[in-house]
Amino acid sequence: MMENYSSTTEFYLLGFHGSQELHYILFMIFFFFYSVTVMGNSIIITIVCVDKRLQSPMYFFLVHLSVLEIFITSIVVPVMLWALLLPGMQRLSLATCVTQLFLYLALGTADFSLLAVMAVDRYVVICNPLRYSSIMNSRTCTWLVIMSWAFGFLSEIWPVYATFQLTFCKSNVLDHFYCDRGQLLKLSCDNTLFTEFVLFLMAVFIIVGSWIPTMVSYTYIISTILKIPSASSQRKAFSTCTSHLSFVVIGFDCCFFLYVKPKQTQAAEYNKIVSLLIFVVTPFLNPFIFTLRNNQVKEVLRDGVKRCYQLLKD
């Protein structure tokens, strides 16, 4: 597999190093994380769609965030789990590699956009509560979600196209557990400096561009909350934001370290660790962050558990 691959039609993933016993242990850990991620986010989607108490813009956005988290982790983790069970390297066709790269970048970009939208939503509800229902009406919320999804998919067409216009002649072995762009650039025998620079600028535009409205919103939010005379009212106002802010800090920090760097071809082990945080840990934390820190969601979950218990008891 070290000949000339100028017309590569498949790639091989090295995955994780170590013995097969270690791979089995990793499989059990990652399978647990993935199962909880899918189940937890599915529960959030279900209760928001079913319970009328959660029919508000904040939970409407949360449903789409949960859908994105399920999709993002499902694009990478099942492939990774399958590779952990099989000895040797896993083969990916060119079409599979292109599809995986495009989908996780597009969904990740949509995720960033939606987090920024959720921050603005929190700003409006706290800083302009009397105008909240008129500003964040159902039409506005729907269009904000549509634009987030559309921006995610449209903005990643050129980066993926440019990546696969390169000539892969060094090897067709990717030292990763998914079709990573940095590893693809390493395999190219073309001069990738210009492509990497453009990709860097796009990453800055997407990630920092989503980070700025989020931070501006929270600057105004904190300033407004601190002016509230009642301590209990302050705590109640903070409680509506802490879940979203916690998720923002985790998600943005991980992707900032992975993508906002001039040199995309960084050390494989570093990329693997940060990628695990993005594809495994962050989606896993999402249901806990938005349920354990949200009294209204916890109340709906408790009522749901009670109803299920009564049905089983009868």
From TrEMBL:
Topology in membrane: Multi-pass membrane protein
GO CC annotations, alphabetized: plasma membrane
One example GO MF annotation: G protein-coupled receptor activity
Database matches in InterPro entries: GPCR_Rhodpsn, GPCR_Rhodpsn_7TM, Olfact_rcpt, Olfact_rcpt_6C-like
Membrane-spanning parts: 22-47, 59-81, 101-120, 141-161, 197-221, 242-261, 273-292
Keywords: Cell membrane, G-protein coupled receptor, Membrane, Olfaction, Receptor, Sensory transduction, Transducer, Transmembrane, Transmembrane helix
PROSITE patterns on file: G_PROTEIN_RECEP_F1_1, G_PROTEIN_RECEP_F1_2
Subcellular location: Cell membrane
G-protein coupled receptors family 1 profile domain location: 40-290
Major localization listed first in the record, in broad terms: membrane
Family: Belongs to the G-protein coupled receptor 1 family.
Record's protein name: Olfactory receptor
Source organism: Chrysochloris asiatica (Cape golden mole)
Phylogenetic placement of the source organism: Eukaryota, Metazoa, Chordata, Craniata, Vertebrata
